[in-house]
Each structure stands twice: as C-alpha cells, then as structure tokens.
Amino acid sequence: MVHWTAEEKQLITGLWSKVNVEECGAEALARLLIVYPWTQRFFASFGNLSSPTAISGNPMVRAHGRKVLTSFGEAIKNLDNIKATFSKLSELHCEKLHVDPQNFRLLGDILIIVLASHFARDFTPACQFAWQKLVGVVAHALARKYH
Amino acid sequence: MVLSANDKTNVKGVFAKIGGHAEEYGAETLERMFATYPQTKTYFPHFDLSHGSAQIKSHGKKVAAALVEAVNHIDDIAGALSKLSDLHAQKLRVDPVNFKLLGHCFLVVMAIHHPAALTPEVHASLDKFLCAVGNVLTAKYR
C-alpha cells in the first residue's frame, strides 16, 4: 500500500480542487497525441488527428480527455486504495483496449506539464514531487492486472 | 528521431524568449529534479543541495549554457557537445535514464515561466530537442 504523508495528501487534494477537469483533461490528452504521435494508434476512430490544431480542436479528443481526467479524480478521492479503485480499469486496458502501460507514464508526465502551465509558481517542487508520485501510483495500478 | 526544420525553428524561438533567464531556469530545473527524483542526488554527494545553494546555481548555469550551445549549433548538436559527450562517457557516467528526468523538469520549468510559448507543437519540438541532447551526451557510453 502506498504511504502518503499528510503534506502530500494536502498538496494533491489542494491543487485538485482548483483544476478545471474538462480543460486540463482535454489539453493533457491532446498534448499526449501531439508530443508522442505514436499514441494516436489507440484512437483511429476519433476522426481528424492530422495536425496539432485538428487534435486540439477534436471534440472526441476533448471528451475523452475529460473522461480520463475525471477517472483520475477517483484516485484522488481514494488515495489510500488506488489499487482497488483501478482494478477493473486495469483489466479493461489490458484485455479490451490493449494499451501498453508505458502510455500511462507518458500521460502522467504530460499531465504534470499541463498542471505546471496552469498553476505556475504554485506548482512548487514539493507539489511536483507529490503529483509525480501520484501519477506513478496510478500508472502502476492501471498496469497491475495485466497478464 | 530527427529534428525537422519546424522543430529547429520552434526550439530557437522558445530559447530566444528565455533570453537572459537561461541560467536561472537551469538552476530551477536542477532543483526540481533533485526534489522530484531524489535518486538523481546520488551524482552530487559533494554538493550542497539545499534550496538556493550556490553550487546548484553554478551548476544550473553550466547546464543552461550547454543547452544554449546546442541550440546555437542545432544542425550539429553532436559536434557542439562532443567534449561534453566525452566527459559524460569517461568521467561522469550518469545513467542515461537521468537525462529524460532532467529534460522533463526543464519542460516543467518552461511551462511555469512561459505557458503561452509552450504550445503543444513547441512542447513536442522541445521534447525532441532535449532527447537529442541526451542521446548525444550518452552516445559514447559503449
């Protein structure tokens, strides 16, 4: 089980309360697809992904980004039980979606950069540490049921 | 992975915006890297790594200068950083995984100070550039 200090929990939940999930989610997913174009392999059905502009404006990308980040919020609500929270999602990503877990790490790092761009100096080194720990834990939980 | 003409333009553009802050950003990048990835501190047992340390400032300046040098010779990064590449291979032997960590923290610092300049396209170009620099610095490892 992951150990969170009180400070880490506060840094995570405190920042999260100010996050616009729809905007950040859309931006994070769009950036993932733009910065690491090979990740587009999972989104063949999403229509026009032909350019950064197309990707950023693509309504399916935006909607899916929001969905992904909303789900991320579940981890934050259940910091002491992330493994169980993502158990079914892990099975889904393995058995149905066939997503290489490396992609969870890529998205985690992109999310960090999006948060940094929104929160600037409030995204202190201590804050970054807590959030990098969180995205790592989430990536691990999502990979846990792979077989 | 090759830098396109667009990538080079994007990277030069964003470094022009950094201007005289490069040294400051170098130090901030290192500080974030040490805070976020404590294992990176193992390469600096001889340093004072506390916040605002003179050694971090000085080393951040060196790192920034190397990046600026690479940008100024973006058509031949391997040539521009050849001596640094030798140094890392023969003396420093920093594990290759750490260049990604440093690069990531540099992107975070850029996002904090220049969010508008770090568009998705520029982000992609800068990420590629930082990978290229890391590759050059580890190219002679074996």
TrEMBL record, chain A:
Example of a GO MF term: organic acid binding
Domain of life: Eukaryota
InterPro entries: Globin, Globin-like_sf, Globin/Proto, Hemoglobin_b, Hemoglobin_oxygen_transport
BP terms from Gene Ontology: hydrogen peroxide catabolic process
GO cellular component: blood microparticle; haptoglobin-hemoglobin complex; hemoglobin complex
Gene3D superfamilies noted in UniProt: Globins (1.10.490.10)
Ranges where the Globin domain occurs: 3-147
Keyword terms of this UniProt record: Heme, Iron, Metal-binding, Oxygen transport, Transport
CDD domains documented for this protein: Hb-beta-like
Protein function: Involved in oxygen transport from the lung to the various peripheral tissues.
Description of how the protein assembles with itself and partners: Heterotetramer of two alpha chains and two beta chains.
Family under the similarity heading: Belongs to the globin family.
Descriptive protein name: Hemoglobin subunit beta
Taxonomic source organism: Glaucidium brasilianum (Ferruginous pygmy-owl)
Gene that this sequence comes from: Hbe
TrEMBL record, chain B:
Entry keyword Aminoacyl-tRNA synthetase: no
Gene3D superfamilies associated with the record: Globins
Globin domain boundaries: 2-142
Alphabetized InterPro entries for the sequence: Globin (IPR000971), Globin-like_sf (IPR009050), Globin/Proto (IPR012292), Hemoglobin_a-typ (IPR002338), Hemoglobin_oxygen_transport (IPR050056), Hemoglobin_pi (IPR002339)
Cited CDD domains: Hb-alpha-like
Pfam (any one): Globin
Keyword Iron: yes
Cellular-component GO terms for this entry: blood microparticle; haptoglobin-hemoglobin complex; hemoglobin complex
Superkingdom of origin: Eukaryota
Membrane-spanning ranges: none
UniProt-listed GO biological process terms: hydrogen peroxide catabolic process
Function: Involved in oxygen transport from the lung to the various peripheral tissues.
Family: Belongs to the globin family.
Name of the molecule in the record: HBA protein
Organism: Glaucidium brasilianum (Ferruginous pygmy-owl)
Taxonomic lineage of the native organism: Eukaryota, Metazoa, Chordata, Craniata, Vertebrata
